[in-house]
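Handout, section B. The chain below has 56 residues.
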Amino acid sequence: MNKPILSLNFTIDDIHKLREYNYEVTKEMSNEEKLKYYNDKGKALLKELCEIETPI
């Protein structure tokens, strides 16, 4: 399944698309694989957020 294309206004339909996509990606994974998948995604997001410079 391809990554969903989200609208600029982020609607309920976009949430449904994301949930369906995540289900399709993880449905064949074991609990350990899911844990690693979500932890890796979380760590990547945290790294990206830490790189953003915020004005004081």
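Note. The chain has two helices and no strands. Compare this with the example in section A.
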